[in-house]
Structures are given as C-alpha cells and as structure tokens.
Automatic annotation (TrEMBL):
Transmembrane segments: none annotated. This is SDR family oxidoreductase. InterPro entries: NAD(P)-bd_dom, NAD(P)-bd_dom_sf. CDD domains: SDR_a5. It comes from Pelagihabitans pacificus. The lineage of its organism: Bacteria, Pseudomonadati, Bacteroidota, Flavobacteriia, Flavobacteriales. Residues 8-184 form the NAD(P)-binding domain. Pfam families: NAD_binding_10.
C-alpha cells in the first residue's frame, strides 16, 4: 500500500480525498495539518497525520511518503504565499525525496490567467505552481476543475485539455478524479480540465492515459 500525503486535508475537497484514500485498497492517506488541534479529527478515524505549514519548511512532511496530492488553498487570502510558493516548496521537497507522483489540484483558467476577468491573482498563482511542477521532472498530473459545488457525486465528468465552456463540478467528483490520477498508469504528465459530464470518471481518465 502506498502512503499518500494530502496537503490541504482539512479543506472541503482535501477532506473528501482523505476519505476516499482511507477506503482504497491501494493507498493509505497521511493528512497534512497546520495545527496540533486539527490532528484529532483524523486520528479518531485511525488516519495518520503530519504537522506542516506551507509557509514554512515542509521537507519533513514527505519523508516516508510515496505520492502527494496537493489540494491546499488559502481561500484567496494568501494566494502567493500558499497556493503558489507553498506548492512550489512541496514540489521541491517531493523531488528531493524521490516522490513517485505528484497530483495537483489546480483550476480551470490557470492555463491562461491573463485572460481571466476575475480571480486573476489566484489563477496566476496556480499557473506558476503548475509550471513549476511541470518543470520539476517529477511524474505529475494537473487537474483543473471548473467551479466547485457541494452537490452529490455523479461519478461522471467531461474531460479535455481546454474545455472552454461554462459548467461546474462537485467536489466529490473532483476528489475521485484526483485519487484516480494517483495510479501509476493513469494521466502521467498530463494537464487537463474537468466539468460535470456524461463519461464515467474511470473511462474519461483511461482515454487520456493511453
């Protein structure tokens, strides 16, 4: 079983990733938390935790880890410090530690932030973090969902390099896509956008993996 560090484990999407990993036969989650007080919610479910702040040194968080999911975000408050530089820091630490795969939760629009009419600073930060990952020589998958909802999972998505259309997607379906991307034979060194659609997540991911 591979150990997967989840950065942003206390967030809405990160929490769903942790729960999916907990029930997986392939992966075991390690929740990265910023405060000692956040450990209890995971430890009562027998989920391992590690203390780490993306604004500080994070080298210790990837020790004895196989793969990483970056689902952290500052909620628009510290996009450069967390969403950009924090991600870059974790990417660098992962490279040094020989992490097998790094799955990045990015955002639709991060491919061309200059075209955005809103959230430009956020998309610019995500763009820079994504580019850093692409240049890192780590095996990666960069997942760029449209606007996130708290609706129930449909288990179906629309997937493409540039979807260029309106839509949204549930956090549950995003979490399922991130976990699917962790597999060794899935979406290696691929960047793609996702929205709610009519193709099963597994099938959509298989298409870009071949």
């Amino acid at each position: 079983m591979e150990k997967v560090l989840v950065a942003g484990a206390t967030g809405k999407t990160g929490r769903k990733v942790v729960q999916l990993l907990k029930t997986s036969q392939y992966f075991r989650p390690v929740a990265m938390v910023r405060k000692e007080s956040q450990k209890a919610q995971f430890e009562k479910e027998q989920i391992d935790t590690v203390l780490g702040d993306l604004k500080e040194d994070v080298a210790h968080t990837v020790q004895d880890i196989d793969k990483v999911v970056f689902a952290a975000g500052s909620g628009g408050k510290e996009v450069v410090a967390v969403d950009q530089e924090g991600a870059k820091k974790l990417i660098d630490a992962s490279k040094k530690e020989g992490i097998k795969k790094f799955v990045m939760l990015s955002s639709m629009g991060a491919g061309a932030p200059q075209k955005a009419t809103e959230l430009q600073e956020y998309l610019e930060a995500k763009h820079k973090a994504d580019e850093h990952l692409r240049e890192s020589e780590l095996r990666y998958a960069i997942v760029r969902p449209g606007p996130l909802t708290n609706e129930k999972s449909t288990g179906k998505i629309k997937l493409g390099q540039r979807l260029g259309q309106d839509g949204s997607i549930s956090r549950e379906d995003v979490a399922q896509t991130l976990v699917r991307a962790l597999h060794d034979d899935t979406a290696n060194d691929k960047t793609f956008e996702i929205l709610e659609g009519d193709t099963l997540i597994g099938k959509a991911m298989d298409k870009i993996s071949s």
